[in-house]
Structures
1.
Amino acid sequence: MDGMNRTRIIDSKTEQPAALALDLVNKLVYWVDLYLDYVEVVDYQGKNRHTIIQGRQVRQFYGITVFEDYLYATISDNFNIIRINRFNATDIHSFIKMENARGIRTYHKRTQPIVRSHACEVDPYGMPGGCSHICLLSSSYKTRTCRCRTGFNLGSDGRSCKRPKNELFLFYGKGRPGIVRGMDLNTKIADEYMIPIENLVNPRALDFHAETNYIYFADTTSFLIGRQKIDGTERETILKDDLDNVEGIAVDWIGNNLYWTNDGYRKTINVARLEKATQSRKTLLEGEMSHPRGIVVDPVNGTVT
């Protein structure tokens, strides 16, 4: 459950596996193959595979769950819920119709067996399994692996989580979903080097202020300029109005100003204070530009390019 020891239990005669369900008592995996039109079952070791039900009706199965002798499934075309005897597939019963029925699960204590003790129990300091952030059960409930939230690295003790030394890293924006992430210059390392800036749409322009640890971003689709510290705190929108298409921003780290381009109806280059930006914004240049996009500053030599 910690992402290690990945094992294939089925690697043949399968095309479009969809819904999954477990029989925890007998250690069985049930699944729907929407292309081959069957529901099959196999044990945890990938053995004793056989078909429960086959036919065109399986193509409409959306979700499945198992309890006692029966397999329950939602049907996507008519939104029925059906019950199938998993030991006798001719015993099929459609017992309820619900509008837009999709996922399905069985609620009962027997579907979540309790153990007396486990490796992720909370210690006297309130930490699950002694882990600073996340405790994941590994090969069984008796062993565990500690993991850290995004933007933190696991310490040498295998339990504590620490922020990396954010002295040198790359950060980039991407869409769908919109997010700004940080990464080590050695791309072989998958650790995050800042808390991601999430819930964006299309972050095209980025810059930073090293002294304050702020990452500045322009979300062109949301028509805003915002900032967030690399530790994930102090997220705020600093400019919102009259931003048509901001594809370039630049931080003046000496004068503590923000410059940006506006490639909308008005072609402009603008500036504002980093603090109280809405009360101090000013248009520096307007017109005589076709598409002002990228912008960089050199405050030491007093230039904007």
2.
Amino acid sequence: ELRALDIGLRTRCCDNDCEQTIKLAGEVVGGLHQRPEYNLPLQSVKPDLMAFAQGIWPHAMQVSSINENLFQIFSTNFIRRTWLIETEQGSKIEVVLDKGEVVAQG
């Protein structure tokens, strides 16, 4: 149901801290995608759409019904390493290496 509305939902956990992110349908401006994004802390790995402000949702979206029917499509499990490199000119470059797996359900 979220996909039909061009809405993405992600949960992330690192150690014992979890958060949920909702990405709403947006627009393309000058070839760049702009999507409203909202983050909230979670008490567990199970997302809770009802925790978000009701004003963010598209008109007439049945948030409660969708929330009850959420299921996981895939998961990513990885370790992230990050390096911050500073050039002689003072520019900062962030280098990130993710190593892990993507597991699809079914």
3.
Amino acid sequence: MDARREAWHRIGLAHLTADWMDTSADLVVCLDDDMRLQYVNRTFETATGLSFDACAGRRLGELRPFGAATARVLTQLSRARDGTAEVEDLVWSVDGDPGHERQLQVHVRVERAADGAVELLLLSAHDVTHVRAVERMLLDSRAELRTLADNSPDNIIRYGMDGRATYCNQEIERRLDTTASTIVGELPLGATPPGVGGAEEYERVVFEALRTGRPGRVEITGPDPDGGQVTHSVLVRAERDAAGQIVGALAIGRDVTDLVVARQEAAEREREFRSLAENAGDRIARWDPSARYVYANPRMLEVLGKPADQVLGRTSAEVGEGRFDDVEAAVTHVVAGGGAQLVEQRFVDPQDGLERIHEVLCVPEHTDEGRLVSVLGVGRDITEAVHAREELVRIASTDLLTGLPNSQALFDRAPAILDAAQRREQRTGVLLLDLDGFKAVNDTVGHAGGDLLLRAVAEQVRAQLHPSDLFVRLGGDEFVILIGGVSSTDDLAAVADKVLSSLNELSEAPASRGASIGGSIGVAVFPEDGVTVETLVAHADIAMYQAKRAGRGRVEYFRPALGAAVARRAAIERALAEPGLVDDLVMYVQPVFRIGTDVRLVGAEALLRWNHPRLGMVQPDEFIPIAEESGAIVALGRWVLQEAAATAARWNRGNPQGAPLTIAVNFSTRQFVLDDVAVAIDEALTRSGCLPEWIVAEITESLLL
């Protein structure tokens, strides 16, 4: 016996069927005199989210299973305990949500001992939400019918079998220039005041209904009490008794003056619309609420390639046979209650068989009451604009020199390739190729020759790759190869070897002019070395720099052991190649004193520091060797020389009577190899106005060896 049933027997309810109570649709709760819960059924558990174990022995006020309504339940229980309980309706916001209210009819039964003491309080709550809602609807409907009857704006006249009026409501006196007393007892024509149009037709319809039982409708125009003209639409129906025999006729008239005016205005607007649409250059169409054509202007019919009688009354799918699926979807969306839709529809023009692209705006057309009456579509030929846009996108993602995809294309397309590899649980290789010695070749053959060589490299490498491989030029002499569906690194090694071997063949190509061409490749593998294209390219870049340091013409795979030093070196080399390099340079001066009979300042030594926005303050012993290897030492040396000359000139112009102050500048061996140092010094002196004796050139011993 489970705890629930034990509690059932313990509190003295063995005479009731526990299973029946547990499956009751009502919420059932048993409490002791202290308002402590002794039993709750499963419906209670489901409705409140409180289990039996969580409730047993705890006070109702503590648990608050009915939220804010718990206080009312406690009050009802207290009154029942005192002998004054009644059945009450309770509004319960489930989970505290006012939008999720339930109405419960709560009943409390008190079990007492022979001496009248309370033994048990039994509370049952029946969900009457639906019942109360139906009751409210009935009350609202009755009130609405009473309101309509008391305030009907219609004119109502009842006729006997002889065609004479037997009743007329008072509303007609406010609508027409007549009175009820002049209508009752008269035939329709006899009661019609002067100046009313349609009276003869009205009388005919009344007698037709009396004779045949067929209903009829007629419009009557005439003066109103204020001297204006009004139009009434009158519906005449036969009245029958319980046996179905005609016993009279009932005429119900409604003032439709505004409707008639609106109808006339709508007809005028429709004429204006058609006049504009028929002569417009745009393609214009209308669909009804069932998404069928109700109008198509001549330009639209040309697009459809069919005459109007084969278009009107049909859907876009029926007319276009699937050629206008985007427009069809847009119209369906608007008809279903959605807002305006702007779509680009591609289709084959039936006149010349060429693809066209139209921008089509589909907007809903509503009545003043908000009822959808049609969907208006306006289309414009944007074929040339789209082609121009697509060409711009192609250009933006293409390297103009080689015709290869560029870095933008890499970062646009690579995520989809990596996602596909992840779904298929495959690996993807990223190979970063950097040409060895390209700068020297470029200096030899010139920039035009270098461009020819880069194009030759692109063609040579592309020939070694599978069409599905993504081959990208990052910029300069760096290329990226993205290879999907890789089963092992051996596959990548084979591709890398083919690429490097093919570069060796370029030495015999005319574009190389006999220069030796090679390359270094760094490899990173998805997902081991990274899961984003940015990370993979960065890791392949680190591996590539390691390949260059290890002797060039090699393939290196990324591994964590390459460490931060390789990444740091690669970052410094990239930063040295940035256009704004000199903007981040700082020159400090270290004073030089001559010690003799006194201590005298004779000059200073120029010290170079590099404060990079991302790398921070980089020390000379870290970046100078890299600058010497990359050739950036030329720009650095010229900048230091210019700053030193300008500083020396400024010092000595401000000290005309004193001994000249000199600034010592260190020169690297590579500066003499890569630059004309004499010309650089002359330019710095000329530009700054510095005298030659104010600059001291310090040369390392390696230059003399």
